């Protein structure tokens, strides 16, 4: 057994592996009496080390004093000087391929106008006009920004083309950057089909979905007033499944509708937004195993009400946190920002929010190789410019990510300061 890289002098290592912790040092993910069974610990190890094998996966994690000699021999050793290390964020909901700017719309919302699904058509018009080179350059810019904030796994949706050619070219761009590609041709009905929405549903089912087979891993629908009905949604999800795409859903963002019941009934991997949810909705989601992906940045940017995470966890629902980076309802790619908002306004504990933005995001993507730092997981992690993971919410708006690694290789770096051990601090 040998390692290519050994990260040592870690003040706190979050593994999201309960069995990795030598003692119960992490707070329960659900809180006392809350949350789904088994989500108990961040698997926190203090004064830790992390070894990465030649395959880019975690070879060992544990106390720094117990690193096996054969792992240390010949490995590149990197001391992080007492910093905390966390799994890379898994951002399971993004709309990153687009053109145009909607800052004026945001300013109008802040001045009192309400958000509606119709604004998406503004981005559709600009995206259709842009060439592939321009769209991809903007995507790369946004991905690099997100990586500097600690994100190492991305899901990316189509949905700003809304034609056969534009949806497929969007998928082709996405696939050059991630396998987690989602076909969201059913985002809204495009203007040319405004008088005949059923004809557009037929286009999605009969032409766009078959053409996307092999490109899209996921099929998604915006099931909402002003977008697609529950009946249309189920038809589109079924068509996607017939072409090898797993279902996920935009659900109950703007109204208390039937979308969460549709998500549970159709076995969606994730139901996203879920701003409005009845007790029956939560019971159905818990029974189906569908992950609910909450999007704190959306509520922040639209002044929608914040859902109470404690209620969802108490019902036995698994939760993820994602950014929903898009030019209309939420133009942030910073999961540390979303985590801080989730703690402040959605009533997550810091531990719950960190789990949801890492292991929860992985669950929403049906992944077990990311979002954790157990043996065999992909060595995707962020070194914080802080001694504890709690600083992600404790110091909102301050860059707390120092270095970001994917498969054990440095992919992003920010200026960092010297971490002063707690025992040496005044006061």
Walk me through what this model shows.
With 427 residues, the chain is of the alpha/beta class. 33% of the residues lie in helices and 20% in strands. Strands 1, 2, 3, 4, 5, 15, 16 and 17 form an eight-stranded mixed β-sheet that branches. The chain has a seven-stranded parallel β-sheet with strand order 8-9-10-11-12-13-14. The chain has a two-stranded parallel sheet with strand order 6-7. A hairpin with a 2-residue loop joins strand 16 and strand 17. It is globular. About 4% of the residues have low confidence.
Descriptive labels:
alpha/beta; eight-stranded mixed beta sheet; seven-stranded parallel beta sheet; 14 helices; about 35% helix; globular
Topology of helices and strands:
Elements: E1 5-14, E2 44-52, E3 58-63, H1 69-72, E4 76-79, E5 84-87, E6 89-91, H2 103-110, H3 120-129, H4 132-148, E7 151-154, E8 156-157, H5 164-175, E9 181-186, H6 197-212, E10 218-223, H7 230-242, E11 246-251, H8 259-265, E12 270-273, H9 279-288, E13 291-294, H10 296-302, H11 309-314, E14 319-321, H12 335-345, H13 350-364, E15 381-384, H14 391-394, E16 401-406, E17 409-413
Parallel strand pairs: 1-4, 1-5, 6-7, 8-9, 9-10, 10-11, 11-12, 12-13, 13-14
Antiparallel strand pairs: 1-2, 2-3, 5-15, 15-16, 16-17
Helix pairs in contact: 4-5, 5-6, 6-7, 8-9, 12-13
> Helix/strand/pairing class, anyone?
alpha/beta
Overall 3D geometry? globular
Distance between the termini: 45 Å
Taking Cα atoms only, what radius of gyration do you get, to the nearest Å? 21 Å
DSSP helix fraction: 25-40%
């Amino acid at each position: 057994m040998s390692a290519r890289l050994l990260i040592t002098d870690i003040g706190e290592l979050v593994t999201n592996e309960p069995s990795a912790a030598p003692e119960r040092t992490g707070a329960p993910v659900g809180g006392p009496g809350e949350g789904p069974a088994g989500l108990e610990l961040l698997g926190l190890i203090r004064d830790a080390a992390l070894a990465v094998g030649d395959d880019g996966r975690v070879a060992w994690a544990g106390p720094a004093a117990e690193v096996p000699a054969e792992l240390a021999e010949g490995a590149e050793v990197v001391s992080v000087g007492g910093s905390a290390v966390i799994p890379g964020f898994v951002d399971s909901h993004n709309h990153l391929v687009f053109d145009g700017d909607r800052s004026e719309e945001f300013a109008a919302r802040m001045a009192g106008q309400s958000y509606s699904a119709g604004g998406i058509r503004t981005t559709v018009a600009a995206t259709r006009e842009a060439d592939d080179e321009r769209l991809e350059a903007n995507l790369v810019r946004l991905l690099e920004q997100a990586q500097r904030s600690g994100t190492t796994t991305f899901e990316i949706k189509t949905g700003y083309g809304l034609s056969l050619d534009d949806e497929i070219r969007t998928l082709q761009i996405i696939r050059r950057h991630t396998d987690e590609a989602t076909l969201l041709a059913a985002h809204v009905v495009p203007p040319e089909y405004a008088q005949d929405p059923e004809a557009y549903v037929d286009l999605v089912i009969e032409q766009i979905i078959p053409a996307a087979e092999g490109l899209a891993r996921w099929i998604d629908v915006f099931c909402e007033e002003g977008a697609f009905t529950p009946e249309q949604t189920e038809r589109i999800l079924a068509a996607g499944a017939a072409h090898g795409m797993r279902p996920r859903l935009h659900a109950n963002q703007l109204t208390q509708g039937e979308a969460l019941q549709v998500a549970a009934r159709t076995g969606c991997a994730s139901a996203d937004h879920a701003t409005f949810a009845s007790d029956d909705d939560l019971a159905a989601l818990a029974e189906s195993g569908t992950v609910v992906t909450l999007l704190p940045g959306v509520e922040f940017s639209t002044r929608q009400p914040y859902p109470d995470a404690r209620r969802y966890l108490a019902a036995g629902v698994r939760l993820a946190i994602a950014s929903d980076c898009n030019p209309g309802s939420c133009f942030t790619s910073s999961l540390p920002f979303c985590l801080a908002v989730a703690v402040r306004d959605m009533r997550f504990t810091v531990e719950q929010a960190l789990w949801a933005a890492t292991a929860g995001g992985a669950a929403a993507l049906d992944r077990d190789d990311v979002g954790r730092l157990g043996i065999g997981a992909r060595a995707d992690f962020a070194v914080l410019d802080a001694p504890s993971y709690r600083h992600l919410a404790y110091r909102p708006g301050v860059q707390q990510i120092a270095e970001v690694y994917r498969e054990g290789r440095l992919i992003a770096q920010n200026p960092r300061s010297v971490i002063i051990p707690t025992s040496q601090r005044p006061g």
